[in-house]
Amino acid sequence: MWSLVYWQFALVAGLTPFVWLFWGVVPAVSLLLGGLSYALPTVCSVAVLSLFRQPEKTGTVFLISEGLKTALALILIVLSLLLYRELDFPVYLLGFLLSSHLVFLLFLRIHRYGK
To answer: What domain range is 20 assigned to?
Structure first.
């Protein structure tokens, strides 16, 4: 699970300089904030899942960690919108969606490659 967190941060850190180079500072910061708005709550979720490894509590801990991740993501979205007035929302949303859907892209590529 920690490898997914690594890939989320790597994606955001890798795309931000390119966006800055081609479109400027505001879209780059918007992409960075969007990606971090999902990647940071994922860190908390993975940390909670890593702390509780008892098989009988897996379902409950998963639901708690996903609820925590959703709440933190919503808080970070609202804070980003309130604190960074120049936010370019379509680019912000792109960073958020790339970070959140990276898991689907990785698993589909790995498990369904060539099918």
So the answer is: 2-111
Structure tokens at 55: 């098989």
Tell me, what's the pLDDT at 5?
84
Q: How many domains does the chain have?
A: 1
CA angle, residues 47, 49, 53, in degrees to nearest 5: 125
Structure tokens at 69: 């991740």
Look at residue 92 and tell me whether its pLDDT is greater than 70: yes
pTM of the predicted protein model: 0.84
Q: Which among 96, 101, 103 has a CA at the least distance from the CA of 34?
A: 96
Biggest CA–CA distance in the chain, Å, is 50
CA 23, CA 46: separation in Å to the nearest integer? Answer: 33
What pLDDT band is residue 1 in, cutting at 50, 70 and 90? confident
Q: Which two tokens stand for residue 98?
A: 């790339």
Locate 105 and state its tokens: 């892209």
CA-based end-to-end distance of the chain = 25
d(CA 110, CA 70): 26
